[in-house]
Write a structure and sequence with these properties.
The structure holds 2 protein chains of 2 kinds. Chain A is built from 19 helices and 5 strands. By secondary structure, chain A is mostly helical. Chain A has a two-stranded antiparallel ribbon with strand order 1-2. A two-stranded antiparallel ribbon of chain A has the order 4-5. In chain A, α3 (79-102) packs antiparallel against α4 (119-130), α3 (79-102) packs antiparallel against α18 and α4 (119-130) runs parallel beside α18. The chains are: A mainly alpha, B mainly alpha.
Chain lengths: 610, 187
């Protein structure tokens, strides 16, 4: 598995690693495009109900599901019923998980005897996983039992992703169907997403990950003797477990020596695979994908990044196939690729350059604070861009410790609405909303009829697109502003100055856009962030989702307008270019003032140090 | 209310399938094909005692051992029960003071060259088992002196515990500090 002693030819300086960095980045994009194409075609067949190579095994399971649940696969739904089924299903999921988190000590597979969660934390966590956000105000190894991780979180990783996929497929059907009142059956789309796509890929991915060293067991935590015992100051606790203070109010400590440590165990690989594939991002451990048991080697890191991007990229192909013109999907994929490359370039350049303060102290090399050495800067930066370009939110780096411009990249990717590949399902539907805005604006400017995929863009579509794009942004700005005038909220900041504002802005951006990564210095487990964050996640997930379905219903009912001389071609380069501009303009107009007060001012003041 | 029945039953079925069947199958396969990795790549010493995991770093200090990267885990450094980073912002004065302190500790051992970043900046997990080749080389004279070995001999240990880029391409060349230090103790 590992190669030993290749060190002689590995004399490297930063300049020497750049070709490796580029090669790894291009290798990733190559592998992604190579896999996304056939997967996208396969997914189109699955959602159209056609036979695939998995049908001999899975079709009977699928039928069994429908029989047990009393679902008729030919029972087509209008958009209201589709939305109602989706919301009801999510409500049931939420209640189940909320109950499970509160009742943790009474449930099995809890070898560490971990207690139940407080209700605000349980509420935040349940919302977080139901909405595909996977924001974590807790640390997994000391809070959640194996049962909660498996029967709770792993399950939600599957079904929240499948919900997103179902919604975007309904929207695509809306474009495809002509004068129809129906957009598909939610239960069928949900079941097919899990059975044919998420489950088989996760199975393969999880076993591959264990080959690299990701753990998968049900043992209790292991005790390991330290080679060199460590002595440290431990806070003194009184009989009730509260820290004791001396006369001056400082915590009392006693010097103790640790001769052994506990090493946490658990069924990690099975959760790790779906965590990336479903762009969920909730780590088994506090350090998430930076933890060596979640992400032990550069190859496991490569695979995890690939898994994060795979379904969102494949969905552009599925979209193209289903609307009968693959070039429509390719235009969107091109926009995503372009933004992805730019984001990686800015982040990587900024982290390689490190900071003038560290240079002054005599530190050589890039900014490695909050990064793992086995991945180096390149693999870490690729992961950071991938996880925030999508709604994944798993991390291999502590985003709080990125350079100011480096931190601006993930924050901007999230604020743009996670459309650069985006979350499974929600990335593509948000991108389609941007495409509709772009079609409409260009229609106004050049006097062409606003049409997209043979359907007229009218008032309803514009309203829904604006809701889809702006709701999360409005929530972010209002709640961040509220946090700034709430002393208990500003007390949660870990770093002084502009960086503290960035921590809060990032927190609400991440929750409202259902990302889940964090500037984790912020103490999130307070009533303020648990409750308002929960609200942000709910609004950010369900308001756009219902708007998408409303748009799908509206489009499905419309007549097909054949392209004429007055139609703007949306499958060509000029449109892709225009769409990119629209995305950047909308993003900049909404968020520039807030970003200027956070990362940008931090960067400028840092440069002023010299 | 027609949708309530499938909502509840689907929730139940997916819990059984994705929360029961799927992890069980993965566990079965992993324990059969990759049992060592699936159980944490544990290191067992000659007496049958578990002394750590090849993937999880441990704290080391003093002149006789290679020092790992700084760790920001709660309680004590390299506490596997509290994985995590410092989350310090790059301009945080407290963070810069800590880095300066770590550099001072290295300079006190006679290091005059620029300091490799990994040796004074804390990792993301706080459990990073590796240091860079530069960080290892810089410590060789100190360890050779403390252990009464030649620098060539110590460099040989380092060479034996160096991992190259995976598949010749991925990641960074690196040295596993725990394995290296254990080899120094039990040559």
């Amino acid at each position: 598995m590992r190669t030993i002693s290749e060190h002689s030819q590995e004399e490297k300086r930063p300049a020497m690693t750049l070709p490796y960095d580029l090669l790894q980045f291009l290798g990733l994009l190559g592998a992604l495009l190579l896999l996304a194409h056939p997967l996208g075609t396969f997914m189109a067949r699955v959602y159209n109900g056609e036979r695939t190579f998995l049908s001999p095994i899975l079709a009977p399971c699928e039928s069994l599901f429908y029989r047990i649940c009393g679902v008729d696969r030919n029972d087509e739904m209008g958009w209201q019923r589709y939305a109602y089924a989706m919301l009801l299903f999510n409500l049931v999921l939420f209640l189940t998980l909320f109950g499970m988190l509160l009742a943790q000590p009474a449930l099995p597979f809890n070898p560490q005897g971990l207690p139940g969660l407080s209700w605000p934390l349980a509420l935040n966590t349940a919302i977080s996983f139901v909405t595909n956000t996977n924001w974590q105000n807790y640390s997994g190894e000391s809070t959640l039992s194996y049962f909660t991780q498996m029967a709770g979180l792993t399950v939600h990783n599957f079904v929240s992703a499948a919900s997103g996929m179902a919604i975007v497929i309904a929207l695509i059907r809306g474009f495809v169907r002509r004068t129809s009142a129906f957009i598909g059956n939610f239960w069928v789309d949900l079941t097919r997403s899990v059975l044919y796509i998420l489950l088989p890929l996760s199975l393969v991915g999880a076993v591959f990950l264990t080959s690299q060293g990701v753990i998968q067991n049900f043992c209790g935590y292991k005790t390991a003797a330290l080679t060199q015992p460590i002595s440290y100051d431990k806070p003194k606790l009184d009989a009730l477990g509260t820290p004791m203070l001396d006369r001056a109010g400082k915590p009392l400590t006693e010097n103790v020596t640790a001769k052994e440590v506990s090493i946490p165990m658990g069924p990690v690989a099975s959760q790790e695979a779906i965590k990336e594939l479903g762009t969920n991002g909730g780590g088994f451990f506090n350090a998430n994908s930076a933890h060596p048991f979640e992400n032990p080697t550069p190859l496991s890191n490569f695979m995890e990044v690939l898994f994060i991007l795979l379904i969102p990229a494949a969905l552009t192909r599925t979209f193209g196939v289903m609307v009968g013109n693959p070039r429509q999907g390719r235009a969107l994929l091109g926009v995503m690729l372009f933004l992805f490359i730019v984001a990686f370039g800015v982040l990587h350049a900024s982290e390689l350059a490190s900071t003038p303060m560290l240079h002054k102290l005599g530190v050589a090399g890039g900014n490695l604070e909050g990064k793992e050495l086995r991945f180096g800067l390149a693999d870490t930066d690729i992961f950071t861009v991938a996880t925030t370009a999508t709604s994944c939110g798993a991390v291999t780096a502590m985003h709080d410790s990125l350079t100011p411009l480096g931190g601006l990249v993930p924050l901007s990717l999230i604020l743009l609405g996670e459309i650069v590949f985006g979350g499974v399902g929600c990335g593509l539907y948000t991108m389609l909303a941007f495409a509709i805005i772009a079609v409409f604006v260009s229609g106004l400017m050049i006097g062409r009829t606003p049409e997209y995929l043979g359907k007229k863009i009218e008032v309803r579509e514009m309203w829904m697109s604006i809701v889809i794009i702006l709701v999360a942004g409005i929530v972010v700005l209002i709640l961040s502003g509220l946090a700034m005038i709430t002393p208990s909220a500003t007390a949660s900041m870990a770093n002084p100055g502009a960086h503290g504002l960035t921590e809060v802005l990032y927190a609400f951006a991440s929750m409202a856009n259902n990302n889940g990564s964090a500037f984790a210095g912020l103490t999130g487990n307070t009533n303020f962030y648990n409750l308002l964050g929960g609200l942000a996640m709910l609004i950010g997930r369900y308001v756009p989702a219902v708007a998408v379905l409303a748009m799908a219903g509206g489009q499905a009912g419309k007549k097909y307008v054949p392209p004429s001389l007055g139609t703007l071609p949306t499958d060509k380069f000029p449109f892709a270019f225009w769409l990119t501009l629209v995305i950047l303009i909308v993003g900049a107009l909404t968020f520039f003032p807030a970003l200027a007060l956070g990362p940008i001012v931090e960067h400028l003041s840092m440069m002023g140090v010299n | 209310m027609k949708e309530l029945k499938p909502a509840i039953l689907m929730c139940l079925l997916f819990t059984l399938l994705c929360g029961g069947f799927y992890p069980a199958v993965v566990t079965g396969l992993a324990q059969t094909i990759f049992p060592r990795q699936a159980n944490g790549s544990l290191i067992i010493d000659a007496n049958g005692r578990t002394v750590g995991s090849a993937l999880i770093g441990q704290p080391f200090s003093g002149p006789r051992y290679f020092w790992p990267r700084p760790s920001a885990t709660a309680g004590f450094a390299y506490n596997p029960m509290a994985s995590g980073g410092s989350n310090s912002g790059p301009a945080n004065p407290a963070f810069l003071a800590t880095v300066a302190e770590r550099i001072g500790a290295l300079r006190a051992t006679g290091v005059t060259t620029p300091i490799p970043a990994d040796l004074v900046l804390a990792s993301a997990s706080g459990l990073d088992p590796h240091i860079s080749l530069d960080a290892a080389r810089l410590q060789i004279p100190r360890i050779a002196l403390a252990r009464n070995l030649s620098e060539e001999a110590v460099a040989g240990f380092v060479a034996n515990h160096t991992e190259g880029r995976q598949l010749g391409l991925l990641g960074e060349p690196r040295v596993n500090v725990l394995l290296l230090n254990r080899a120094l103790d039990n040559p």
